[in-house]
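Quick question about two entries, pasted in order.
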Amino acid sequence: MNYFKNKTLLITGGTGSFGGALLEKFYTENTPIKEIRIFSRDEKKQDDLRKKHINFKGKLKFIIGDVRDTNSVNDAVNGSDFIFHAAALKQVPSCEFYPMESIKTNIIGTNNVITSAISNKVKKVIVLSTDKAVYPINSMGMSKALMEKIAISKSLLNQNKTNICVTRYGNVMGSRGSVIPLMIEQIKNKKPITITDKDMTRFLMTLDDAMNLVFFAFKNGKNGQTFVKKTNSALIIEVAKALKIIFKVKKHPIKIIGVRHGEKMHETLMGAEERSKSKENKEFFILNPDLRDLNYNKFYNKGKIGKKLNNYSSDSTTLLSSNEITKILIKLDFVKKNL
């Protein structure tokens, strides 16, 4: 990855699953990067990450701070060449109970990071988003949708200065708060596996899939573009069945508990309206920004006829069987560690 040679990279929310996987990739590939800055508010996770990567030979810098605070953001951004913006409140219940907190972090925090990036002439910012931002029904998704809007609007108002791109992906298997570690814990503790609805579907992505999307956007992204990774999906109940196969507990009970507050039956990575305007290749959708200027008459009097396509959602893509899911899960480190 020579485009990182002698460059400084800032990862906001860098102690999360994405940041940890990224550090592993940089270390194992001996990336010739100048400095990696991990910016987060959790000193315990920073200390854990510091001890884990003690052999990074001085390239790793940990910065305590919060994206909500402009001063700490400016201190972290100053001197950075690139930013991967992963800091967010991601738990649906937390954002439902405290929606103003999701606004402060996901919306205002993002605005702080991008504004600082532009002021400090950062070359490129990659903003990490989620499928829940599409047709959102919960506070987390709504705040992430507005996060995307802020990123795109900033890219339009500051053309040819800081390159700003958005990446959007679905559930990352094994990430903090995701369903598969919960199911493993239920199996190990001999508790029923809880399923909200037998017809519920979700996209399934590995951390490698997520990083491939981010690096594709980093390498190829033009200002204001949004990138979506094509991926398979599965019925959640089939995921549970796959784990029962892996852990050899075929008779382990599955309990249907009903759809929870703020939860969708199916997730959408790209809405029909977006998809009609996007380009695609074998692996990705690429959505270009609306480049109209601030002439409001164009929004009222001019439109564009596009092709009519369906949503790209978890119930309309290839649904994996429990055996296919088993083959994927058995290769994942967090599953191996629990066997």
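Here is the second entry:
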Amino acid sequence: MTKRGLVPERVRSREPKYGSPIKPVKLEKRTRVLDLIEQFKSTSFQSRNIYNAYDVLRRMQIDRARPTVFLGLAGAMVPAGMKGALMDMIKYNMVDVIVSTGANLTHDVIEALGFPHLLGTPLSNDLELRKSDYCRIYDTYLADKGFSAEEDLVLSVLSQMEAREYSSREFFDALGRRLSPRKSLVGLAARKGVPIYCPALCDSDIGIALTLHYARNLGTPTVSISPIRDNFEIYQIYRRSKKTGAIFIGGGVPRNYIQQLGVISEAFRLDRADKNLQMGHDYGVLITTDSPRWGGLSGCTFSESISWGKYSVDSYTASVYADATIALPLLVGSLVQKLADKLASKPRLELIWNGPNLTKVVRRKD
């Protein structure tokens, strides 16, 4: 017999049958982002998922095989103030290739030209904003004249490019050379040799500027950006990699574009005889607010993607179902605090191109 309310000694001393105990988060005056994320290992729900994502990202960055890391960028991350975290990922050699929506790149260029996004409210009078030439992104405003400045710059860059076919990588490199690497993600990527691909470039204001250029040069040779050339280029980067990792902020076109690289490799039947061929990504991290149950790619699980050959069966993956404006800076900040020295000494990849052909990949320490 035991007294009411007391736990028998045999119960209190028994080891947990199904897992380790949950540990309450402890916050001190000097708690760093890294300290908080590492505590998330012993919590539940999305905080533990953030730790799992941090652990996969850490493994990805310290892997001795030096995986090629692809960043898929969707959502309104630049307007939301996440550009600093994204630029840190480039500065610390966390990513080697960027695949983005046209919108994020458009807004990056606009900010670099001196038109900041402004704190607003979702309770705005949108008709009044329209009359005042301001656009709204939920609780954020942007002056319409910023788009005009961006279009003028794009048209200026296009006017100095030879009339021929380009990949979006080549175009954004030329555009980035006109932007400050301190103020622009596109500018920094150009200086660091990080290629940017934008498979849905038409779906953006930069795409509108390209359309203006096309219309003004009807009947004459002009700049043409080929999405098929993009496919061929990024496939070559993938094929030359011993290992690969993927980091997804949101889903949509950037996510599928990176994930289909294994599928493209299978389509090149000649590659089936190549024993060194990379088949499926080795690492994957996803930050999304979508759910798998709707059948959309933005929320689909990594396990589902294995059925397509998009990930290795031995891959390390983690999904965080949270607002990326919260999860991304926590993850980037914790990685910088944990791996600053190793990231600083990590070689960046220099890609040598001859037209659409990737001729050489050099590991270079700056």
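Reply: The chain has one domain: 9-364. The chain is about 40% helix and 20% strand. Hope that helps.
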